[in-house]
């Protein structure tokens, strides 16, 4: 009998977890930011094509993916950059951020009136930098 109760309790607990129950104050509309996952660091086709145009224009040769998606505030975009370089140097990141945003605004017609957010992911899918340049 005790074994059945344990199995029943475990089943109920598992169902509660899998049902998506959240805390009362949790933000249910939160959507995970795009970027590499544990199983794949391959850039989506559009992100790879944008990065190719960026590199051809003289951009960082290590960048293999650039995506621009709506940011969490809806006013400023999130720019997701994927790079083959695992370097976490702050100065390199600032140069890369300036290079990517300059390319997007000058060559792709992207406007950033309220600033932008940028995530840079390394070759293993690990977040290297997160930058908030919103106004």
Summarize the structure.
The chain has 135 residues and is an alpha+beta fold. Helices cover 35% and strands 22% of the residues.
Give a structural overview.
The protein is α+β, with helices and mostly antiparallel strands. The protein has helices spanning 2-18, 45-56, 90-107; strands at residues 63-70, 77-83, 115-121, 127-134. Strand 3 (115-121) and strand 4 (127-134) form a beta hairpin. The longest helix has 18 residues, at 90-107. It is globular. The model is unreliable at 1-32 (pLDDT under 50).
- What would you call the quaternary organization? single chain
Strand tally: 4
N→C terminal distance:
63 Å
Strand line-up in the sheet with most strands: 1-2-3-4
Low confidence ranges: 1-32
Strand percent estimate: 15-25%
Q: What's the order of the H and E elements?
A: HHEEHEE
Query: pLDDT average, as an integer?
Result: 77
Biggest beta sheet summary: 4 strands, mixed
Structural class designation: alpha+beta
Helical amount: 25-40%
From the alpha-carbon coordinates, what is the Rg to the nearest angstrom? 20 Å
| Overall 3D form | globular
List keywords for this structure.
135 residues, alpha+beta, four-stranded mixed sheet, 3 helices, 35% helix, 22% strand, globular, disordered N terminus
Write the layout of secondary structure elements.
Blueprint: H1 2-18, H2 45-56, E1 63-70, E2 77-83, H3 90-107, E3 115-121, E4 127-134
